[in-house]
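G., the chain you wanted modeled:
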Amino acid sequence: MSNQSGHSHHSWVQPHNPANIKLKLLQKRPQEPMFYYFAYGSCMCPVDLKRSLGENTHPYVVGTGILKDYRLGFYVCSPTRNCGVLDIVKDAKANVKGVLYQLPWRLSECLDIREGVSQGLYCHEVVDIHCQNQVYKDVRTYTVVNKLAEEIAPNDWYFNVVLRGAITCGLPEEYCWHLFNHMYQLQQRHQDTQIVRSA
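Predicted structure as tokens:
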């Protein structure tokens, strides 16, 4: 009945470090399927994104990213926000800055609902994103299906959400000013048009 009966080589006889046991259990737990998502509009704001996805998205932020050969534009009127909302358009002379997320796959459908995919508002676009000195392949972003010929101004609420997201997630100051100016000019143009129509 002594320890010398040939069983001493079994690891369960030896004392364990509780931290090591926890680490091994975590390593054995199956990894949740994930996907990369590039946000360039209101979804840059984790607070607004949480409203749609139902959970805090801060932990899923990879970092600020760059989408090359595209530019921003307000080429669709959102039926839910009742104003112009952001879109991306191919343009070899431009790039779009935004936020790269790595989201759990279980949030994919909620994101599609937010973007109006089933209504034909936006569709998936698979792109490469430059982030933290590397290129992420097969990243999902969204682009407007039926683009308007001219841009439509955002309302103040959307204006603020986009700008807050850009600043909160650390996009370059110059880019934030460019975004601010773009939205401001569209709003001014919209106001001028309204004045002419009411005259």
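The radius of gyration is 24 Å.

Shout if anything looks off.
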